[in-house]
Amino acid sequence: MQNLSVLAAQWVAPSVDYHGLAPELVVAGGLCLVLILDLFIDDRKKWLLSVISSFTLLAAMIPVLTLALSDVQVRSMFDGRYVVDNFSLVMKGVFLLSGYVVVLLSSSHVEEGEYWRGEYWFLLLSSLLGMLMMTSSRDLVSIFVALEFLSIPAYMLAAWRKRDTKSNEAGVKYFMLGVFASAVMLYGMSLLYGVTNSTLLVDVASQVTGTGEFSAVHALAVVFVVVGFAFKVSAVPFHTWAPDTYEGAPAPVTAFLSVASKAAGFVALVVLIYTAFPLAHDIWQPFFWGLSALTMTVGNVLALKQHNIVRMIAYSSISQGGFVLMPLAVAGMSGSANSALRSVVLYMIIYAATNLGVFAVILAVSRKTRSGEISSFGGLFSYAPALGVLMTLFMASLAGIPPLGGWIAKFVAFQSLLSSQSSWAYGLALIGAVNSVIAFGYYGNVMREIWMRPVPDGDITQIKIPGSLTLALGITSVATLVFGIFPAIGLHFADLAEIAGALSR
Amino acid sequence: MNMLQENNWLLSVGTFLPMVGVVLMMLMPKAQDQSVKLVALVTSIATLAVGIYTAFKFDFDQAEKMQFVANEKWISVIKSSYLIGIDGISLPLYLLSMVITLLVVIYSLDHVPSPGKPKAFFSLLLVLQTGMAGTFIAQDLILFFVFFELVLLPMFFMIGVWGGEQRQYASIKFFLYTMFGSALMLVAFLALFFKTGAESFSIPYLVENGGSIGKNLQVWIFAGMFVGFAVKVPMFPFHTWLPDAHTQAPTQGSVILAAVLLKLGTYGFVRIALPILPSAARQWAPYIGGLAVIGIIYGALGCLAQTDMKRLIAFSSVAHMGFVMLGISTLTSFGINAAMFGMVAHGLITGMLFFVAGSVKERYHTLEISKLGGMLTQMPHLGWIFGFCTMASLGLPGLAGFWGEFPAILSAYNPGAGLNETVFRVFMVIAALGTVLAAAYLLWLYQRIAFGTPKNSEHDSHSTHDELHDVTTYEWLAWTPLLIGILVLGIVPNLLFSVFDPAVQVTLSAFGG
């Protein structure tokens, strides 16, 4: 007893910067509110929950903005294990806004299907909360907690269409491979802790260096941790869950997975290699080189063969992931580190806008066609010109055609890669260039359906688009255009994103 | 480099005015076809008016200098800016794009190709115009790239939606080819950027500093650009998209493709590849010249083998662009002047030939040469116009085609410093043979189509005498300016040469005179 009370006396409550935690707290409050209200309100009024969810996300943007404008550049909490820096703020903004668009995409879908509405919003907000935490985690343990926090709700969401075997398959596959990836990553983390005696990333960094006592254990630990997140971002050869999960999950959930969940994986990857392994670049640079080349090529080639639009988008998103990884292959070189980080952040911002737009169109069109085939887009332009033009814009943006958002994302990725001026970089750039041409094969195919093919069955009944979808389409298309024509805007945010504590080189 | 900055809003207005028309059309209700056409017409007239005003304000005594230069921040993080300007090389092409777009709009007032949808059709035309004009004024590689790519999608849709039976195949082939070229070109641009110190993408800056890059590296960077531009020209062996694209495209698409889009490639050589990488250009010149003459002969032989009138004209484009590239490859002011003239002349003449082919198709419902004949007896005006264009195309002195072809051949006799004279003289002889072949296929084409007795009545029971009307008012309106242009430039070629020459001299200063 005596000992215990001594220990208790030594306990000092950590000082908590509530301003710094405000975005997370707002979302946490919102999701509790949704959960409680769900119990008490009438079935007919459950649409309120989607409204509450969307306002929660918008409300959480307010502290993100005040934090961004405040004089304190870096807020470090819990001995540097939870850090609010510019990088985390930019990414929090991306997550909150894409979460908002996902809510818009979901609301009519959830209302019309047989869903457990309250729980849907609750899980969506939980997953987003995990993502917000991920942006600030600077410790192996908090990264792991954030990862599970964002993944477990996502597993459930993927299996949301309970009576549909495909959706069940989606959930189970996602769960199994996700857990497997977590296990691999945990193994890597435990090795890291074993050799460095710390879970704090900056402490890990000082131990895992390219010089001196660099052993096989270090290398194994780095590779295992990276592989864990390679699953999350569905990089080839760790991508096999993605197409089935994307196809089986409800479309808004797929949009969420392919954008937000993927971005969360990249956030963790970037944080790890910039703050924990900056000096181990001899290991992860070649690893990312191979991962990137494989991911963009395999994703592309498989996308060419797809008949189902969501599967095609799944493979396209795999291949886009390869372009995000591309600059990381040189991120360890002096002079390329900053531009690689900028490129990854910019790519995630623009990709989020464009891909959510694609799903908005898919949702709108499938309301009429009730089909997932690419051919169901046949003749879309002739009876729904606005949707046809928007889908064309989004496809062109994904293909990287100026002046739409995607081109500047791709361009900056190439620029960052080539800034290292190594022959390896030129090799990867050529692979990337060829891939961006191949990609047009399937993006162009969708355009071809929309503009040049006849309407299947000649059914040209008008598509009724609910207001929330229209809003989502508006937001995403304006963002896609503005980022492309005025690239300085997107680059401004990407440039702000500096990770505090990243070793400067 | 000296730059004149007065009236620097003119170019931006001229380039982006068509987009205003596009937005207006988007806002219009679907059914109002007439007002859509009106908006398109007014916009393209206004655009050309701005263009003519620009030419009026252009200081021809200083044609070698960039004028109306505007330099605004655009993407400062990646050191690219909105740097635009126009000199003697760009101005004629800039105006050409505006004239062609207006004439195509006029022609389309009466001829929206199947399946209709005039709103989309005219919108795409105007977007194309912005892309084309923008390419000719951009003085920053990234800006150039954006405009260069901007023309791809509208053309893809124009071929794919309004084209012939094989339109989907042709459109995707066109797109993939060009995109492949531009992807490599972009990598080359980036390499150039980093090898000149990662300072700027502006063309004047790169012209000053590009020469300092090591020669071996220059050759590689040039290779990337070469593929990008050569696909667009198109040079042998990257030309195979062209016959398909031209044959399948609607008349308007073919006209724009032939008259302006192909020039984006040759313009890229003159504006970017040559002045920035002079020693690589010298290294590459014999190969470019060789591919050019292969293109001339191959295109001509291809023409002789065609049974489809439109496909034949398309192959003749390959041959004619071969002359342009031959002129460029000599690296002499004489040759490049000839090439520049050839670009404009080819734009007017081949554009006109495609217009005629479109009208033939509309009247006879076929372009099979074997099913055509006796045009002169049925439609004398159309027949004479066609004859005029074939004469111009084969390079008859006194018409515009001559001044692109003949000097280009002549320039190969005396290639620039450091180039092998023997090789280029061989090229010259081969190219001269090409003109003979050109005369052969064009005259043969004209003979089969215009002379003889009409045969369409046997083959095509649909056509009645009502359909075989002669040139209509809209056609006259669209064609007369081109015909006048061909004649005037043929008689007074100095109109253009005097504008080009000072700017060409500046371009060549990188080669030491």
Characterization of the model:
The complex is a heterodimer of chains A (about 500) and B (about 525). Chain A has about 500 residues and is mainly alpha-helical. Chain A contains 20 helices and two strands. Chain A has helices at about 1-10, 20-40, 45-70, 85-110, 115-135, 140-160, 165-195, 200-205, 215-230, 240-250, 250-275, 280-305, 310-325, 335-370, 380-385, 385-400, 405-420, 425-450, 465-485, 485-495, and strands at about 75, 80-85. The model of chain A has no long low-confidence stretch (mean pLDDT about 85). The mean pLDDT of chain B is about 90. Chain B is globular, with a radius of gyration of 22 Å. Chain B has about 525 residues and is mostly helical. In chain B, helix 17 packs antiparallel against helix 18. Classes of the chains: A mainly alpha (about 500), B mainly alpha (about 525). The interface of A and B includes residues 429 and 452 of A.
**SSE pattern of chain B:** HHEEHHHHHHHHHHHHHHHHHHH
Counting structural domains of chain A, the number is 1
- Give the low-pLDDT segments of chain A: none
Shape of chain A: globular
CA gyration radius of chain A, whole angstroms: 22 Å
- Contiguous low-pLDDT stretches of chain B (5 residues minimum) are none
Strand order of the largest sheet of chain A: 1-2
- What share of the residues of chain A does DSSP label as strand, in percent? under 5%
> Which oligomeric state applies?
heterodimer
Q: How many strands, which pairing sense, and closed or not: the largest β-sheet of chain A?
A: 2 strands, antiparallel
Pick out its properties:
A: 505 residues; mainly alpha; two-stranded antiparallel ribbon; B: 513 residues; two-stranded antiparallel sheet; 21 helices; 3% strand
Summed up, what is this model?
Chain A is built from 20 helices and two strands. Chain A has 505 residues and is mainly alpha-helical. Chain A has one domain (16-496).
